[in-house]
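User: Structure please.
Assistant: Input sequence and predicted structure:
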Amino acid sequence: MLQYALLFLVIAIVAGVLGFGGIAGAASGIAQLLFFLFLAFLVVSLIIGLFRRA
């Protein structure tokens, strides 16, 4: 999931440099959403891993 977030970030940067503001905004929004989903899943998996060891 983090790879997809980085992919959309690169797409947003390239689209922004080329002047495609709408596509850049949409791609950056998707990248931000995927990054925060990744962080949420990371935290949940770490918490579950801690409870399984105990």
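The chain has a mean pLDDT of 91.
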